[in-house]
Specification:
single chain; 473 residues; alpha/beta; Rossmann fold; six-stranded mixed β-sheet; 19 helices; 46% helix; globular; binds pyridoxal-5'-phosphate
């Protein structure tokens, strides 16, 4: 296996191997890691992957990104364990909703959202690398709801990890909050920030940029800025595309988008040689990406709460990776765009670059009433119960006429309807039931700390948590 190296989108950090990229998350220059070159599979190599069990398919594809950091057999062992925690034998089943539209159900993992697919594997990779190195790290993460619970469920009680998750107080659903705050493992701490998800994300970034703190705490990230997470999300697009006829048939994808990680994984699958011809990005009223695609208006507005809280985001971190590629992998130009965005809240994307983006991507925005109408429509017409995030993607797919898009559309079904029961009940009159393993969630004890949007206070809390566990260990 040749050595796979990663470069920063901002060009000021030395190229790194997979292990370092996994542990570091964000590059020292504030950029995101990208593979130095894309591993490309030939059509015959893709055909040979058809019909494999998901754990094996995913190990084969992810191994193209890990280089010699671990053997194929080790990786296959981890994917087998990770996906054994899913409640469906196909792990990521495909369900037909209409003549052209297929839901790729990514929510059969322990916390009922697609983030389990990557994080169940990531926690095992972290533990493997750290145990090998005899090291211990502190993972900090910001969540709009689903990353946090998935990270906590994946990392709880793992000996080499401490975990601190920041969520915006009162802006996650009750199921989301309880899935985080009822895990009382000593290596897990929850902080409710008096602010928005973007505030939480900014706090996490600020902790990483604070070099002495970062070194002292041995900080690591599990947010979707971590390349390993993107890599772990590529295989499900491959599984769906292969079963719909790829590489001999073109497909499109429709993805409900927040931080741009999930759709970026689909785009990466295309770079690896899958014929994914079009990318549909679904947004709620926080529609920065749709505005960008419609009129080259990449400007952040205030975040407004919606029925799809995991998409209540105005700064889509992973967009930087696409921007880097669209700018011909020019790190200086990428860094300039990002610093202009940071300074002014507006990204001056060159017109030619924007036009390139619009050839591949289209944006679609759906407000809350539209989302409820779509959930009702799907239930009435296809007998399907969709959560609000998934419904935005199904509506986005249907908004494109068959004459404009005559190929199967893989719709990322990102959350189980029972994770957002109030919206589903309002739309359909049906209260979706939690799977058995979570049936007593509302009775469990919760534990979390509320803090203001202040870096110093958050750092102090992280330090206290990590230190306590080191002393106890
Ligand atoms: C995280 C999440 C999204 C957004 O995914 P990104 O990778 O951030 O674009 C969409 N739907 C659900 C249910 C999520 O949990």
């Amino acid at each position: 296996m040749p050595c796979m190296r990663y470069v920063s989108t901002r060009g000021e950090a030395a190229p790194r191997g997979f292990e370092d990229v996994l542990l570091a998350g964000l590059a020292e220059d504030g950029g995101l890691f990208m593979p130095e070159s894309w591993p490309v599979l030939s059509p015959d190599e893709w055909r040979a992957l058809r019909g494999l069990p998901y754990a094996e398919l995913s190990a084969r594809l992810i191994h193209r990104f890990t280089g010699d950091a671990l053997t194929f057999d080790e990786l296959h062992g981890f994917t087998t364990e990770a996906y054994a925690s899913f409640r469906h034998p196909a792990v990521v089943p495909l369900v037909q909703l209409g003549p052209r539209d297929f839901a790729l159900e990514l929510f059969h993992g322990p916390t009922l959202a697609f983030k389990d697919v990557a994080l169940q594997l990531l926690a095992r990779l972290f533990d493997h690398v750290l145990t090998k190195r005899g090291e211990r790290i502190t993972i900090v993460g910001a969540t709009s709801g689903d990353t946090g619970s998935a990270a906590i469920e994946a990392c709880r009680d793992r000996p080499s990890l401490d975990l601190v998750i920041l969520h915006p107080q009162g802006r996650t659903s009750e199921v989301q909050r309880r899935q985080m705050t009822t895990v009382l493992s000593p290596n897990v701490a929850n902080i409710a920030i008096q602010g928005s998800f973007d505030d939480c994300q900014d706090l996490v970034k600020a902790m990483f940029v604070d070099a002495p703190f970062r070194t002292e705490m041995r900080l690591a990230a599990v947010n979707s800025i971590n390349w390993a997470r993107i890599a772990a999300q590529i295989p499900y697009y491959a599984a769906a595309a292969l079963s719909l006829g790829a590489p001999d048939r073109e497909v499109a994808v429709s993805v409900p988008t927040g931080n741009f990680g999930n759709v970026l994984a689909a785009w990466a699958a295309k770079q690896m040689g899958l014929p994914i011809k079009h990318f549909i990005i679904g947004s709620n009223r926080n529609d920065i990406l749709s505005r960008f695609l419609a009129s080259n208006d990449m400007s952040a507005r205030g975040v407004e709460p919606s029925l799809s809280p995991s998409m209540d985001i105005q700064v889509s971190s992973n967009f930087e990776r696409l921007l880097f590629e669209l700018l011909g992998r020019d790190p200086v130009a990428t860094a300039q765009q990002m610093s202009a965005f940071r300074a002014t809240g507006r990204m001056p994307v060159p017109d030619a670059t924007w036009r390139e983006a619009t050839k591949l991507f289209s944006g679609f925005t759906l407000d809350d009433p539209g989302t409820l109408a779509e959930i009702a429509h799907l239930h009435r017409d296809a007998g399907y119960l969709a959560d609000p995030h998934t419904a935005i993607a199904t509506a986005a797919a249907r908004a494109l006429a068959p004459s404009d898009l005559h190929m199967p559309v893989i719709i990322a079904a990102t959350a189980h309807p029972a994770k957002f029961p109030d919206a589903v009940q309002r739309a359909t009159g049906i209260h979706p039931r939690l799977p058995l393993a979570l049936a007593d969630l509302y009775e469990r004890e919760e534990r979390f700390t509320v803090l203001p949007n202040e870096l110093r206070e958050v750092e102090a809390q992280v330090r206290a948590h990590a230190r306590r566990n080191t002393v106890e260990a």
